Amino acid sequence: MKRSTELILLFALFAIVCVGRLLLAFSTPSFSSDDSYFLLRDLTYLHQHLLPSFYDPLSYGGRSYLFSPVFSYLLLPFSFLMSPELVGKIVPQIFAASLLFPVYALVMVLTKNHPAAFLSALLAELHPLYLKLTLNTLSPYALLVPLTFWYIYFFVTLQKDNWQLYLFLVLIFILTRLHFSAILLLIAFFFYLLLTKLENIEVRREEIEVMVFTSLIMLWFQFLIYKKAFLVHSYRIIWQNIPSQILSRYFVGFHALNVILQIGIFPFLFGVYAVYRYLLRSKSKNVYLLSSLAFAVLFLLITKMIELDIGLLYLGMVLIIMLGISWKHVLLFLDKSIFVRHKVWISILLASLILLASIPPMITAATQTLQRAPSAENLAAYQWAAVHLPENVTLLTLPEEGNYVTYFAQRKNVMDTQFLFIDNIDQRYEDVITMYTTAHKIRAITLLEKYHVDYILYSPTAKQRFLREQPRYIDDPGCFELVYNQTTKIWKSKCRIDLVSSSG
Q1: Residue 338 per-residue DSSP state
Q2: What is the pLDDT of residues 156-211, one digit of tens each?
Q3: Residue 412's beta-bridge partner residues?
Q4: How many CA atoms lie less than 13 Å away from 125 in the CB half-sphere?
Q5: Nearest to residue 11, comparing CAs of 113, 100, 125?
Q6: CA torsion sign, 378 to 382 to 384 to 388?
Q7: Cα–Cα distance between 319 and 316 in angstroms, integer?
Q8: Angle at 384 between CA 487 and CA 399, to 5 degrees
Q9: Residue 436: which of 409, 408, 401, 404 has the closest Cα?
Q10: How many CB atoms lie within 10 A of CB 501?
């Protein structure tokens, strides 16, 4: 295939993926994740002041933040061309669509086979977990995942005195500061060195220098960013101080069948075959590097040090690239078989079958992701609160809705999904759930007073989760005044525990 034809097809595929993602993103006015609104507030503040804010007077009633602002800074130039909301809708989808470039480049380096590279690139973009984490969300994973595989590509093709080396250095500085989960590469380095040592394969000096340099830079930046959090949370910093009740739900689906279904049957089978072939029969240092990333993910999943969806996303991407390697061997097998005269039609049929098998989970993932976006009726409740509620009040919501309160209602919340630097996070989470589920008015008012709650918001998400139209203790109009009565309901909390006790 000519280079010009290859580039035209690749950029045409990129354009199609971009258009598809943008059409889906703009099919709903809101984002599909609560965390998107945390990053949107950060981007808006950065646009106004050019410096990030590490203190939020609204989150948890007022708290200090700890996060890397690199992703927001990368989005900042676009915010001078369009509103931050449009930046959040458009730019991350373009970032996410760019994944096909490093996947294509990697498979081409490993196989020198254009059909295999195009097949892997398209499967990577259709991966359901990739859609779940990046579609219609303002998420650093939209950039982190493509950059991770660009890093692996540059590592594989690394040469001294090459212009790519300077681009590689820039990539290292961005990747190491973009997100905490980039530390996955350090664990992959360990498995890579272990595999090459066991197979008596020499590791080039340049590779060792890059691994040492990347490790030092990454550990240094993570230390600078998270040193205070480590002193506060100790070992819990590994899990970002996530409440135990939430953390336990991350691994509910971690069993063999669910792993295969989440990754995809064909990527799993073809990918595992490639790993088996090159670990036990052939030797390939580049395949060992990819296998090391897969082993690092499996190690983190088994030790529950990475979220299930994120771990399976990286594992799935590695196996999709491995599928490209296996595809090359399928074509070589056909060349030597009695079916060589029908090689083209057989390969087209098999590729079509693989792509068709990926479409139903892709549609399901895209549909479910878009359905997670808050409805216009739900957002109307927060916007009503911004206009009609006093400024210095605290609004009780579910933790996964806390950033809606700070962004749309611009009022204090009791809890959201930014957990670092919050003391007794397990107790706070349990108290929030109790304020929604308890049948005892005294217990509810005690907790409402503890967290200085002025208003209680009961959303469709709460109705679906607790299977009730409203909290059980809320019927007393003397203590709880219904001030907003739509699909989402808001009550004003009027009682204090001493008044309730004396009247009782």
Answers
A1: T
A2: 887 666 677 778 888 888 888 888 777 888 999 999 999 898 888 888 888 898 89
A3: 394
A4: 28
A5: 100
A6: positive
A7: 5
A8: 65
A9: 401
A10: 10
Q: DSSP secondary-structure letter at 375?
A: P
Model's pTM, two decimal places?
Answer: 0.91
Angle between helices 205-233 and 184-198 (to 10 degrees): 140
- Distance CA(268)–CA(207), nearest Å, equals 29
Determine what percent of the chain falls in helix, strand and coil, rounding each to the nearest 5.
70, 5, 25
DSSP state of 477: T
The domain 376-503 is placed in CATH, from the list 3.90.25, 2.30.130, 3.40.50, 2.130.10, at 3.40.50
**What is the 3-state secondary structure of 24-46?**
HHCCCCCCCCHHHHHHHHHHHHH
Beta-carbon-side half-sphere exposure of residue 104 (alpha carbons within 13 Å): 19
Q: Which two tokens stand for residue 441?
A: 């008015």
Separation of alpha carbons 485 and 438, rounded Å: 21
**C-alpha span between 124 and 324 (Å, rounded):** 11
What gap in Å lies between CA 272 and CA 319, rounded to an integer? 7
Distance CA 179, CA 141 (A): 8
Q: Is residue 456 within 8 Å of 482, Cβ to Cβ? A: no
Judged on CB neighbours under 10 Å (0-12, 13-18, 19+), 368 is middle
Q: Name the amino acid, one letter, at 118.
A: F
> Beta strand pairing status for 55-56 and 63-64?
antiparallel
Which of 473-482's residues contact partners 24+ apart within 8 Å by CB, and which partners?
473/438, 473/439, 473/440, 473/441, 473/444, 476/441, 479/441, 479/445, 480/456
- The full set of domain ranges for the chain reads 100-366, 376-503
Pull the structure tokens for residue 391: 């400024």
H or E element that contains 489: strand 489-493
Alpha carbon distance 13, 129 (integer Å): 20
**φ, ψ dihedrals at 481, nearest 5°:** -100, 125
The single-letter DSSP state of residue 30 is S
Tokens at residue 127, please? 């991966």
The mean pLDDT of 419-433, rounded to a whole number, is: 92
Phi, psi of 470 (to 5 degrees): -165, 165
Cα angle at 408 between 407 and 410, to 5 degrees?
65
pLDDT at 162: 67
